[in-house]
Amino acid sequence: MVRKCAVLVLALGAVVATIVGCGVDKPAPPRITPPSSTQAAAGPVFGYRTENELVLVRGSETFRAAGGFGYSPAPVTFTRDGQFAFSVEGASKTLVSIGVRDGAVSRIGCGCADAVALRDSVLAWWREPGQIMTFDLAGTTPPVVDREIELPASPSPLTGGAFDGARLVAANDRSLLLARVESRGLWWEKSHLYAIGPDAVLPLGRVPGIDAQLAAAAGPDGHTFVLAGITARSASCGTGHVATIDTETNEVASLPALPGECSAAYRPRWGADGNITVSTRKWADATNSPAQVDRLRFAAQGWAPVGEQPVVDRLARGQESVAEVVAGEPTEIRSTPTGVLYIERDGTRTELAQAVVSLGSPAGA
């Protein structure tokens, strides 16, 4: 059933759009189901993606799903219960998933460019002009309209552009984070954020330094997100920025700017151990300048590499295993970085795949 909700705008220090008149009970908080003991015994579970394939690794087993994922640097994402890995085909706007238990592949047209893990095996995405769509990968029901929402005005004024669509970029136990894009066309854009909770929509506005190519990940406290993006100075040069935002208070904490004359920040993660990491590129503002790639960790002294050599992406599971995509030669700045995927277990390092774009693992893995 579609939840058709009226929106009432109140002024309480910050503008808040309150969802009323839905006529349904407040949904229970998301429930996270840990992987089964059988699954855990099979070995570490993670996923990786190339331009043409989504791959799930479960111990010594590998399951594959062909797809036209193109040059998106987005990570492989897992459902909240850890039972499915998924990614979105950019051109066809199709959700592609692989089941962890049986390796079953499914494809569902979503008309979306991004989807987030909402609860259990349920995914969510935004559909214009104002609908949150959901789909349960563990069920057989087609995607449904979960809510209809009218976004309130952003507290950050428009700066010469017009709103050109929106997308869900992250989710936690309390809210969905949505980015609404203000655009003038070509490379120029500004991102206006909203926190969508069960009862209210809080317009957060723009975050300084994070205008274009915004990506986000939930933090371990349940109400803070880490953001990554760029402030573009021209079509060929910008500065990468990383920040955290508390969706309860709208408090923003900016992290140091990334090194490099020109730089980009993407694929942020905020681990349960409190570490914030981000993939980066840096290059000189000159014609045909190559871009150097690495994944950095935020530390007291600033940004530091996560590995001994430059990597496109990296996952570590305590002392048990490390999966890292080792960067190759510097790439053209418009190319999506790829590298060679190595797995290190018990001191043994094995090459697993080439031309890998990104990695992902279940929460808590």
Write a structural description.
- The chain is mainly beta and 365 residues long.
- Helix content is 1%, strand content 55%.
- The protein contains 1 helix and 31 strands.
- It has a 6-stranded antiparallel β-sheet with strand order 1-2-17-16-15-14, with no helix packed on it.
The unreliable regions are: 1-41
Looking at how many chains there are and whether they match, the oligomeric state comes to: single chain
Average pLDDT, rounded to a whole number, is: 86
**What is the SS-derived class?**
mainly beta
Beta content: over 45%
Radius of gyration: 20 Å
Largest sheet data: 6 strands, antiparallel
User: Portion of residues in helices?
Assistant: under 10%
What is the CA–CA distance across the termini? 35 Å
Cα shape: globular
Number of strands: 31
Count, helices:
1
Strands side by side in the biggest sheet: 1-2-17-16-15-14
Structure, briefly:
The protein has one helix at 37-41; strands at 6-12, 14-20, 45-49, 53-58, 61-66, 77-78, 84-89, 94-99, 105-109, 116-119, 122-127, 131-136, 144-148, 162-171, 176-185, 188-196, 200-205, 212-218, 224-232, 238-246, 251-254, 262-270, 276-283, 290-299, 302-305, 311-317, 321-327, 331-332, 339-345, 348-356, 358-360. With 365 residues, it is mostly beta strands. The protein has a 6-stranded antiparallel sheet, with no helix packed on it. Strands 22, 23, 24, 25 and 28 form a 5-stranded antiparallel sheet that branches.
